[in-house]
Amino acid sequence: MLPAATSGRRLQSEAGGRDRLRVDVIIPARDEEESIARAVSSLDPAAVARVIVVDNGSRDRTAEVARRAGAMVVSEPRSGYGAACLAGLAYLRSRPPEVVAFVDADLSDDPAQLPELLTPIREGRADLVIGSRTLGEREAGSLTPVQEFGNRLATAMLRALFGARFTDLGPFRAIRWDALERLRMRDRGYGWTVEMQARAARAGLRWAEIPVRHRVRRAGRSKVAGTLRGMLGAGLGIPLTIVRVRLGG
Predict the structure, then answer these.
(1) Fewer CB within 10 Å of terminal CB in the chain, N or C?
(2) pTM of the full predicted structure?
């Protein structure tokens, strides 16, 4: 682990947020040196206590750039989106926040919308909030046809097997720490987001969706839609994860 953060950012957050929810943000990142500084700086310091960038085996300067931007950096060399998220949670467990949010590093979602995601939790209306790309404004081509089909299939399975009417599996999300710990998350790959939603539905958590902007002008290449391995991994992993959770796994 390589924790490093500018003390000014952290102190400003904590001093200004004593009467607010304590929110930490996890940003999984692999080879995202182009965008990681902007992803970190787009988060409002008044709303966020700590930003944790999980370097998921990057071959570029992602970790260095993230530290310079004011984030703490955790190393998880074993590849996998879920593996990176689990490593970030393990880091936070020694001093857990009230709410943890997950933000992608590639700027396809807008981190500045985090306060909108936090509102239903702050108002006591939800334990889990998903940033829905399908409900929000999308640039043409921001989701590939394969992604759109997979999203429809997965949300249909969640509805059929859990009675949960989600519209999206978007990675931009926030959840109360105590609720997340009850879910006992374990997926280390592409099934992480849908596992959270399936387990939340099974556990009877209150959830909400907030429309978010989704951009095609992401930095770099999507780790899912941009590679054959990613598309195959997500295409197989997501439905299998839903079935596994339904069967009690």
Answers:
(1) C
(2) 0.86
Q: Which domain covers residue 117, as residue numbers?
A: 7-246
CB of 236 closer than 8 Å to CB of 243: no
**What does the angle CA 113 – CA 68 – CA 6 come to, to the nearest 5 degrees?**
80
Number of domains composing the chain = 1
Indicate whether 2 belongs to any domain: no
- φ and ψ at 239, to 5 degrees? -60, -40
**Does 219 map to a domain?**
yes
Q: What is the pLDDT of residues 51-104, one digit of tens each?
A: 999 999 999 999 999 999 999 999 999 999 999 999 999 999 999 999 999 999
Tokens of 74: 């955790």
Examine residue 112 and state whether it is found in any structural domain, yes or no.
Answer: yes
Question: What CA–CA distance (Å, rounded) separates 142 from 70?
Answer: 29
Count the neighbouring beta carbons within 10 Å of the beta carbon of residue 64: 16
User: In the beta sheet, which residues pair with residue 101?
Assistant: 25, 174
H/E element, 132:
strand 128-132
Q: Taking the CA of residue 193 as centre, how many other CA atoms within 13 Å lie in the half-sphere pointing to its CB?
A: 27
Cα–Cα distance, 158 to 90 (Å, whole number): 27
220 exposure class (CB count in 10 Å sphere: 0-12, 13-18, 19+):
middle
Instruction: Locate 54 and state its tokens.
Output: 């999980």
